[in-house]
From TrEMBL:
Superkingdom assignment: Eukaryota
Native source species: Hermetia illucens
Lineage, broadest ranks: Eukaryota, Metazoa, Ecdysozoa, Arthropoda, Hexapoda
SUPFAM superfamilies linked to this entry: alpha/beta-Hydrolases
InterPro entries hit by this protein: AB_hydrolase_1, AB_hydrolase_fold, Lipase_euk
Gene3D superfamilies the record matches: alpha/beta hydrolase
Keywords: Glycoprotein, Hydrolase, Lipid degradation, Lipid metabolism, Signal
Protein name: Lipase
GO biological process: lipid catabolic process
Pfam families: Abhydrolase_1
Ranges for domain AB hydrolase-1: 67-370
Family stated for the protein in its record: Belongs to the AB hydrolase superfamily. Lipase family.
């Protein structure tokens, strides 16, 4: 047994050494370490929510400039905005364009696992979905950014669940709409009527089973990364690995197939930062959205009446989302299909634009990691920022 373990360790060391040094280093570094490595001003801030969670917020500081709040998707972290490097990372591009960049980390991911009274090993710590992330994490982070910069409004850019939580916040905490200069939604998710992702559909079809077994075995966290997984992905997902195609397919089966836009060499870096952790309840809530074809609060079944005073959970009123919202979507996004995005646009209180990426194979993750994301999406984001600022001053 000892010989086997020793052999595995030697294999990891030897195989990891064959990986490009920058790739291996970037896979292991934290978000602030990545930012510093590439010569940008990195800051780490801690934000306490009203319900006691302590969130780590990362900043690429440009004091005095208009702030932009970037919010990652499910199972992701602030690293998503910088892990592709200065030539492609959206956070770097926005900073170079003159903005003060703030990147949130929702409760439960690798950077936000602390609470005033709860341990992350307790089930109580993990008793949250994206509903609570919206009500507490987003609002606390927005207030912190504005209080620390002196601005009255911030731009907001969200990806995937980072859009879901914004729409929940705008509906349930409508006063926060007035604190948003513009909201740009990348791959927006507020319904799963036409969803094609087998991962979410599997959860939708097996809600009771997933809930039962995770509860029985005390599994509260969904797919967190750690050092062992990072080193494994360096081995399995590196160039010339027989398993690299499987690493890519894990992403494609979630968000849609688009091999041309994926930088395969960067797969170890992507897998070093994601998955970054989420609650099982988050995944179940998305599964409910896919099964019931609605955008509502968490369904507790027989406990709904005790929780909400009704047999069914209340749904979110998107007309209350009055912040100016611009949607960026793609035809081949298996999580945010055009039908759902069009439905969302029609239901919003103040939609300002809807842009379909002019590339048919563009998928859910290409918005942040795609090889041509700067030309196809990020340049449009910059132009919209300028447009919305001009309208706000008019």
């Amino acid at each position: 047994m000892l010989k086997f373990v020793f052999g595995v360790v030697l294999c990891f060391v030897a195989c990891a050494s064959a990986v490009d040094k920058d790739i291996a280093e970037d896979a292991r570094l934290t978000t602030p370490e990545l930012i510093k490595k590439y010569g940008y001003p990195a800051e780490t801030h801690h934000v306490e929510t009203d319900d006691g969670y302590i969130l780590e917020v990362h900043r690429i500081a440009r004091p005095g400039a208009q702030p932009i709040y970037l919010q990652h998707g499910n199972l992701d972290s602030s690293g998503t905005w910088v892990l592709m490097g200065p030539n492609l990372g959206l956070a770097y591009y926005l900073w170079e364009s003159g903005y003060d960049i703030w990147m949130g980390n929702n409760r439960g991911n690798r950077y936000s696992r602390k609470h005033k009274t709860l341990s992350d090993s307790s089930s109580s710590f993990w008793d949250f979905s994206w509903h609570e992330i919206a009500l507490y994490d987003l609002t606390a982070t927005i207030d912190y950014i504005l209080n620390n910069t002196g601005f009255k409004k911030t731009h907001y850019i969200g990806h995937s669940q980072g859009t879901t939580t914004f729409f929940v916040m705008g509906s349930e905490r409508p006063k926060y709409n007035d604190k948003i200069l513009s909201m740009q939604a990348l791959a927006p998710v507020a319904s799963f009527i036409d969803i094609k992702s087998p991962y979410i559909l599997y959860i939708a079809w097996n809600l009771e089973t997933v809930d039962y077994w995770t509860t029985l075995f005390g599994v509260n966290e969904f797919s967190a990364n750690d050092a062992v997984k990072t080193e494994s992905m360096l081995l399995l997902c590196k160039d010339n690995s027989l398993y690299q195609a499987a690493c890519a397919n894990d992403l494609f089966l979630i968000g849609g197939f688009d091999p041309a836009q994926l930088n395969y060499t960067m797969l170890p870096v992507i897998n070093g930062h994601s998955p970054a952790g989420a609650s099982v309840k988050q995944m179940l809530h998305f599964g409910q959205m896919a099964r019931y074809k609605n955008f509502c609060q968490y369904n507790y079944g027989t406990l709904n009446f005790w929780k909400y005073g009704s047999l069914v959970p209340p749904c979110y009123d998107l007309k209350k989302v009055t912040a100016p919202v611009i949607l960026h979507h793609a035809t081949n996004d298996w999580l945010a299909q055009p039908y759902d995005v069009n439905k969302l646009y029609d239901n919003l209180g103040n939609p300002k634009g809807k842009y379909l990426v002019p590339y048919l194979a563009f998928n859910h993750f290409d918005f942040i990691w795609g090889i041509d994301s700067r030309e196809l999406v990020h340049n449009k984001i910059i132009s919209v920022l300028h447009q919305m600022e001009a309208e706000d001053k008019a």
